[in-house]
């Protein structure tokens, strides 16, 4: 028995922070950590852990697939014994530890129950096409060789907002509590060398945007009409929809939170 010694247990204050970042997903197997593959989350967790000298595990606003990009992405992490000032000012140091394809734009304190995934009220994606060979679009846009009826595609895209169950555009092996999503915007706009599809919803199912775009391309080729698109949606059967377009053209571009400017 030891006498005359005092033992102290240091309890460090833990605070929750949001990390806003962007990434080129070409070289990564998506966002989420997985065995035997390099992911964006793995690289971010490593950089945060090294700089703050403690194990850090982030939780992201979603799960982008391999090859998918993000111009805006949020993750949250709990840091022990780290002041708000130190965390906020750590952006350049964290970026120095990250690969060039991943960039943190800001770190900011949030309330202790803030959740990067469940608190998001809207998400927006873009899908990029280009029609002429362009080395600067390689890996960042889909080179489409053909003619598309963009007006017909926009008519069909507008019909998406009339439905909520998008089982027809979800990977069949995905198990979720519900396949209901509320789409608030969906349209194509032409660019100098291509096309961009923009879509906003409260949530998205796995592979949903790429499957929707693949089906709308069928409309643009006049392989199906707008009425047949509605039949596909009502069937709730993935095999009735079009093929998923390549990941290289897909970008997560905006996440909305009620408490983030």
UniProtKB/TrEMBL annotation:
Which residues are catalytic?
A: 65
Q: What GO molecular function annotations does the UniProt record carry, in alphabetical order?
A: RNA binding; tRNA pseudouridine(38-40) synthase activity
CDD domains (alphabetical): PseudoU_synth_EcTruA
An individual GO BP term: tRNA pseudouridine synthesis
Catalytic activity reported: uridine(38/39/40) in tRNA = pseudouridine(38/39/40) in tRNA
> Where along this sequence does the record place binding of substrate?
125
Please tell me which top-level EC class this enzyme sits in: isomerase
Where is each Pseudouridine synthase I TruA alpha/beta domain found? 163-258
**What InterPro entries does UniProt report for this protein, alphabetically?**
PsdUridine_synth_cat_dom_sf, PsdUridine_synth_TruA, PsdUridine_synth_TruA_a/b_dom, PsdUridine_synth_TruA_C, TruA/RsuA/RluB/E/F_N
List, alphabetically, the Pfam families matched.
PseudoU_synth_1
Q: Tell whether Isomerase is among the UniProt keywords.
A: yes
Record has Cell inner membrane as a keyword:
no
Alphabetically ordered keywords of this record = Isomerase, tRNA processing
- Might you give the EC number(s) for this enzyme? 5.4.99.12
Q: Which family does it belong to?
A: Belongs to the tRNA pseudouridine synthase TruA family.
Q: What's this protein's function?
A: Formation of pseudouridine at positions 38, 39 and 40 in the anticodon stem and loop of transfer RNAs.
Listed NCBIfam families? hisT_truA (TIGR00071)
Complex and partners: Homodimer.
> In its UniProt entry, what is this protein called?
tRNA pseudouridine synthase A
| Organism of derivation | Pedobacter antarcticus
Which gene codes for it?
Answer: truA
